[in-house]
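For practice. Any example?
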Amino acid sequence: MMKSLASMMAIGLLTVTALAGPGILPTRALKGTRYAAYELATGRLRPLEDLSRAGTSVWAATQRSGQFFIQMHLGPGTTSLDWGDIAGPQDIGAFAFSYGVDSPVQPPQQLDVVVMFFAEENGRNSTGRMPLAAFAIPNLPAGSDPPGEAWTILVELEPDVSAFTIAGSDLDGDALVDFGYSYWFTNYSPSGPENYVGPVVAGDPNVIPPTAPGMEDLFDLFADPNLNEYLDTYWFGGVPFAQFYLELFDVTALYCPEPGARGWHCIADIAPWPEHDCVVDLSDLAQLLANYRRCAPCAHEQGDVEPEDRNGIWDPWDGDGDVDLSDLAQMLSMYRDDCN
């Protein structure tokens, strides 16, 4: 859920262990990436194949260096803050962040992450930063199999409820709005000295074509999630480029309201982006037929669109794991539905 900024600012100060090196901090290698989506409206986490259906990207530090910053090893309150420029004002309807986990799967332990956004932010402990939005994303995977994977989480906001606008001043004279974003891992308790968690390092987002302007090979580090106890501005010695993964999406290509007003999504609109157009048509039927009786287990995106009724609770995202006649019937019942 989205926490109030007032409650976020009420969190007490925490201490950290000694930092390694004068302004240079260590990273750790990654072995792969997995994806999931967090629906803010329902609190549900569901698996994704990738971010191809997330919408229109308006800012992307997503180069992926293959490494992550072992932030949580420094202390439980440690919060990293990065920054950039965006053409604004810009409405944000979804965002994706990514973190690395170098520990085995440890159920039932789960990870809670808070991502905050700021205006008037240009790094080096900007004094005029203004909080824009704070999102608490709970119950995320706190381990991976094999250890060393990244999790990329798409956070789906609600139009007119939790969607927000990045607006503010141009602090560095490039005719773009300056903003910042922070990663705080709230509850991770390493089971040993080699268990690490931290934000994925995206690498240099200024390569051609540039998708995330205003980046510098630096980030700020704070000892507390309120960004009151500034530690210093750090980097990774030039390799990798010190920019943390973030992608922002606008609200124009967000989620289709489902016929019957039983959820945010039109469940039969499954064709990959850009055919995903909030209309159930031939492209969606072709996607289902391509997977008909050919996958087990099957994902929703492959055509497992039959909604499951659990004791009167209708859940469009929990099918029965395969694509069969019942899914085809569901698709045909919604064929040519305009989900807008």
About this structure: The chain has two domains: 5-249, 256-340. The first helix runs from residue 5 to 9. Helices lie at 5-9, 282-290, 325-333. Residues 256-340 form one domain.
